[in-house]
Amino acid sequence: MFVYPNYKRRLALARSLISIPNRSSPPFSLKFYENQYSQLRVCGKMAEQTKQQPAFTKIDQLRPGAFGLNLTVKVVSSKMIMTRGGRNGTQGRNNMRLAECLVGDETGIIVFTARNDQVDAMKEGSSVILRNAKIDMYKGSMRLAVDKWGRVEITDAAAFSVKEDSNLSLIEFELITVEE
């Protein structure tokens, strides 16, 4: 075995520069490990206690630019807007389905834009839970959408009747710049 000249001296210098303790003594005492373990246990208990139930939003509380919304809605109507895909209906990466659905709850209704697999869940009369939904603006009006980080779940029939008088998608918004 070949040993470089001044090996021990260089090793000691390197250890002192990067503060590595000698191998003869343990890097930390047993008390350190006990403290770390107890802190992890406490942190674990605290993490369990801080879990929150998702807050569900009503349609009349929606505002432009809102995101991270959870809603329970009923599908009033569904209309296929676009189907684009491969030849002979083959499944592929370029397939795209787009549907506009009118969804609502007891406070109002809004247009929901369903994409690809979401279209299958949006059958007329079904109740769905929209998780991590967001509001998109299209030609000055609000549209509800769920992107790839969100989820559309079919649920049991909701116990409310949809209020069709108040359509939030018919309200036109305009961005105004205020000069000081």
Could you please describe the fold and organization of this structure?
The chain has 180 residues and is of the alpha+beta class. 20% of the residues lie in helices and 32% in strands. The chain is elongated, with a radius of gyration of 29 Å. InterPro entries: NA-bd_OB-fold, OB_Ssb-like. Residues 62-153 form the Single-stranded DNA binding protein Ssb-like OB fold domain.
Keyword list:
five-stranded mixed barrel, 6 strands, alpha+beta, OB fold (Dihydrolipoamide Acetyltransferase, E2P), 180 residues, 3 helices, 2 domains
Question: What does this entry show, briefly?
Answer:
With 180 residues, the protein is of the alpha+beta class. The chain has helices spanning 7-18, 30-49, 118-121, and strands spanning 67-84, 96-105, 108-115, 127-138, 141-145, 151-155. InterPro entries: NA-bd_OB-fold, OB_Ssb-like.
Number of beta-strand segments: 6
The average pLDDT score comes to 79
Distance from first to last alpha carbon: 79 Å
Largest sheet: 5 strands, mixed, barrel
The CATH class label of the largest domain is Mainly Beta
Helical fraction = 10-25%
CATH architecture of the largest domain: Beta Barrel
- Named CATH topology of the largest domain: OB fold (Dihydrolipoamide Acetyltransferase, E2P)
Query: Strand share of the residues?
Result: 25-35%
Topology:
Elements: H1 7-18, H2 30-49, E1 67-84, E2 96-105, E3 108-115, H3 118-121, E4 127-138, E5 141-145, E6 151-155
Parallel strand pairs: 3-5
Antiparallel strand pairs: 1-2, 1-4, 2-3, 4-5, 4-6
